[in-house]
């Protein structure tokens, strides 16, 4: 994850260590990667989450931030969340991978600030 999540820049040694320290052994890292690799195939679980969101929470303001090259976006997750939250604002960070906040922290922060300002204007 520390190597493949960002595309526009390489993580610093301290950032890489922060990710790796969360998974201290090779086995724990393999297990985490297996979990992420299985995410697109957990349709039953996603359908249950989707039903709950559609009935209870889909009126909430939502900001979706994806990297242009995020594999979950390519698997349809962005479109799926946009269907669940029809009022959501989607931002795609050009050239970024799965961790756009690592690739382009200033752009992600600006997207969050703009989104928050838009919510405040509509309250």
Notes on the structure:
This protein is mainly alpha-helical and 123 residues long. It has one domain. It contains seven helices and two strands, in the order αααβααβαα. It has helices spanning 13-21, 26-38, 43-57, 71-74, 77-84, 100-103, 105-122, and strands at 63-67, 89-93. It has a two-stranded parallel sheet. The longest helix is centred in the last third of the chain and has 18 residues, at 105-122. The model has no long low-confidence stretch (mean pLDDT 84).
What's the mean pLDDT score? 84
Poorly predicted ranges (pLDDT <50, ≥5 residues)?
A: none
Strands, total number = 2
SSE run? HHHEHHEHH
Tell me the span between the first and last alpha carbons: 38 Å
What profile does the largest beta sheet have? 2 strands, parallel
What does the overall shape look like? globular
What's the total helix number?
7
- Specify the structural class: mainly alpha
**Hey, roughly how much beta strand do the residues contain?**
5-15%
Radius of gyration: 16 Å
Number of domains: 1
Q: Enumerate the strands of the largest sheet in spatial order, edge to edge or round the barrel.
A: 1-2
The portion of residues assigned to helices is: 55-70%
């Amino acid at each position: 994850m520390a190597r493949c999540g960002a595309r526009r820049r390489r993580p610093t040694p301290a950032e890489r260590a922060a990710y790796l320290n969360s998974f201290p052994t090779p086995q724990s890292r393999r297990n985490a990667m297996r979990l992420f690799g299985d995410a697109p195939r957990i349709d039953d679980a996603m359908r249950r989450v989707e039903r709950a969101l559609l009935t209870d929470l889909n009126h909430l303001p939502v900001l979706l931030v994806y990297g242009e090259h995020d594999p979950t976006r390519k698997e349809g997750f962005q479109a799926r969340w946009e269907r669940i939250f029809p009022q959501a604002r989607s931002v795609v960070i050009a050239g970024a991978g799965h961790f756009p906040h690592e690739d382009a922290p200033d752009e992600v922060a600006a997207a969050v600030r703009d989104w928050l300002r838009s919510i405040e204007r509509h309250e």
